[in-house]
Amino acid sequence: MIHSHFSQTLLFWNRTENKRIMPWKGIRDPYKIWLSEIILQQTRVDQGLKYYENFITRFPSVDDLARAEDQEVFKLWEGLGYYSRCKNLILTARKISFERNGRFPDTYEEILKLKGIGPYTAAAIASFAFRLPHAVIDGNVFRVLARIFGIREPIDTTAGKKQFTTLANQLLDKKNPGIYNQAIMDFGAVVCKPAAPECEQCPFNTVCVAYKKELVNLLPVKVKKTAVRTRYFYFFLPAHRNTFPVRERLNRDIWQHLYEFPLIEAAAEMTPEALLRAAVKNGWLEKGAAAAISPVFTQKLSHQLIKSVFVSCRLRAKGTGFNDYRWVKKDLLQTLPFPKTITRYLDNF
């Protein structure tokens, strides 16, 4: 019974109760849909909104984005995190613009082949832009289906993902896939919320298994826990005639293609004395020179905790340890894309 009436109930709620407004809702432009979905990966809507608007203003079309310099795109992305998304955004824009004459692929299978696009994003683009019958499955959808249908299979297992995918596609309104997909995501965001869900006002509360069996706070089930690694970063900002050494991070690590100052990464917290000795040894600091050491700046990533300290000083002459760096004037530092931690420090530098 619930299967047959699920989509009708959801779409009725969408028509009569859903007041969630976002600038990309209801549009058919695959470029704007793709851009919004990439920005919103691992990002709250209220945070991603300003980035979406900035990107659309600066790059109104996929061709505009494809022709942009990498540094400009990364600078516009600054603060969003998960910078591999930005790298893939650039690569995909150039593939669509240069290899497909600016035309976005219009089948789920072809969309899925693009760099940085997985099953969820491909389904979103296919259903929103081309009205193709592919169900989206994100955190909101997992939660709604797990609670209403009482599914206890963990969402982060192969068996769980298969079960949810099958159910989601069975429930999908094939005639209105885009409207349905947006409705179920909105429902999870504003009614069937992770914390403090509005069960009393929920149109499914008479049939919701989790509500009837008091399992709301236990579903969905997730078994895997991500181990968090703590890293200690010590950045040095030696000033010489109001210029500072910077370089692009090129290793396959966090913050790839962003910029940084000379860095010492340590396995554990370093004492100020050990820190300054290391800087002198690296040729970044003159022996006996005065240096200011900042408090710890903490940035939490999905699987890492970064603890950063900044050491600033003045140099009478450029040392020997800056061969891999270029010297940039202080007032031009703001034009470079830095990790969020460095930007926070520079805001008051």
Concise account of the structure shown:
42% of the residues lie in helices and 13% in strands.
How would you portray this structure in words?
By secondary structure, the protein is α+β, with helices and mostly antiparallel strands. The protein has 2 domains: 2-218, Endonuclease III, domain 1 (Orthogonal Bundle), CATH 1.10.340; 229-346, Nucleoside Triphosphate Pyrophosphohydrolase. The protein is built from 14 helices and 8 strands. The strands form 2 sheets. Strands 1, 4, 5, 6 and 7 form a 5-stranded mixed β-sheet that branches. It has a 3-stranded antiparallel β-sheet with strand order 3-2-8, with no helix packed on it. A hairpin with a 3-residue loop joins strand 6 (297-300) and strand 7. Helix 2 (30-40) packs antiparallel against helix 8 and helix 8 crosses helix 11 (177-190).
What are its keywords?
349 residues, alpha+beta, Endonuclease III, domain 1, Nucleoside Triphosphate Pyrophosphohydrolase, 2 domains, five-stranded mixed sheet, three-stranded antiparallel sheet, 14 helices, 42% helix, 13% strand, elongated
